[in-house]
Amino acid sequence: MATPLVFIDGDQGTTGLLIHERLRNRSDIQLMTLPAAERKDPLRRAEAINAADIAILCLPDAAAKEAVSAIENPAVRVIDASSAHRTTEGWVYGFPELDAGQAELIAGAKRVTNPGCYPTGAISLLRPLIQAGLLPRDYPINVHAVSGYSGGGRPSVEQYEGPSAAQALAFQVYGTALAHKHPPEMQHYTGLTHRPIFVPAYGAFRQGIVLTIPLELRLLAKGVKGEQLHAALNSHYDGSQYVRVISLEESKTLTNLNPQALNGTNNMDLGVFINEEHGHVLLSAVFDNLGKGASGAAVQNLDLMLAHG
What we know:
By secondary structure, the protein is α/β, with parallel strands linked by helices.
């Protein structure tokens, strides 16, 4: 049996570079990228993608759609790391921990769309609680998240690491028009009936995410406690290789959340912090925006697809 040929289209960007780094020393695949002189040649890119067993697209949305439209070989399978197909019918959502059968769906899929970095955290926290009937679908959700500046791609990395780095802001909230591209993805895969309010920010660190969602117990079904929310998450991710729900005992000792704690890994830590006196709960997710939020997730999906054959 021939060694699978994996083509990375867009390996010069932040996500593509890390995918290439994670794959370059593997002997179970043949890795193909295009030299700089051919990266913008549509004919050469079309040839490469049609020759691949699996193509990983690390491109802007428009370019990703163009790449998919160039596929003529029906055997080519695709992992799209852009946001072009995240809610497109016929594409399998590349979050293996979404449901019990999601990893199997990814393994057999022709078209897989990698989740967004922020939605990975929000969906991982909210979907199990909604499915368990503990969180109403019409709850007014607010998602707050701080990411490393690499989340803004090459322009943001240049801003913080280039000649004008001294003038870069230590912290900045963005998306103040509340029209960010991620809320539709969050709503679609959590099952919320209303669009969540999403407030993203960048900090002066390269990578990592802390995402938090505050809940008021008085707005949940009568009698629902924070411990039940924790138990539902714990049950959903029981046995997961990459997603850990920190114990309530551990959460009581944590006084802060470090966005860089899991950098360089494909891991994600979920937390439930409970203030019984005020009836408040804080849900949290910590992970690497370039790991579980991007390149790590793509490689996880690739491995599932390769195992399927």
